[in-house]
Amino acid sequence: MSTAFTTRTLNITTGTTETVTDLTADCAAFLNEAAGGRDGLLNVFVPHATAGIAILETGAGSDEDLLAALHDLLPSDNRWRHRHGSPGHGRDHVLPALVPPHATLPVVVGRLELGTWQSVCLVDTNIDNVNRQVRLSFLG
Asked: In Å, how far are 72, 89, 94, 110 from 130, measured between CA atoms?
């Protein structure tokens, strides 16, 4: 395998409540090993039909605001045609249309180039699946 492309899978336990999980430190640790001080791109991908990747501020209420906004846009009720799982689970399958399952971010001199308050986050509204995988891939 070429050192120009490196990939790793993170196993994340999100629990039984809707959550925004900050992955920024995991991304930085991966780049510390994979990038070797090079410029390139980090792709973050969640291979699940009911989760997404968002770039947002965390810790100041924005993560809770995102979950509240998603609840307003995608209520947990019986309107959904996709009906297996817990009540309202169909909304979880619509989530990736609003919060995509991927993000590609610049890496400069081996470091993730985020704005001051930006974090890389896994957004998971599916309370039926507590185990998630996130694939980190560096191309540089």
From this structure: 23, 14, 18, 31
For the stretch 14-52, pLDDT in tens is: 988 999 999 999 999 999 999 999 999 999 999 999 999
CB atoms within 10 A of CB 70: 21
**Closest to 89 in 3D by CA, of 97, 81, 98, 100:** 81
pTM of the predicted model as reported, rounded to 2 decimal places: 0.94
Residue labelled with tokens 């959904």: 80
At 114, the pLDDT band (50, 70, 90 cuts) reads: very high
CA dist., res. 36 & res. 54, Å (int): 25
| Residue of 136, 138, 57 lying closest to 102 (CA atoms) | 136
DSSP state of 47: -
- CA–CA gap between residue 92 and residue 48 (Å, rounded): 10
Query: Rounded CA gap, 98 and 83, in Å?
Result: 19
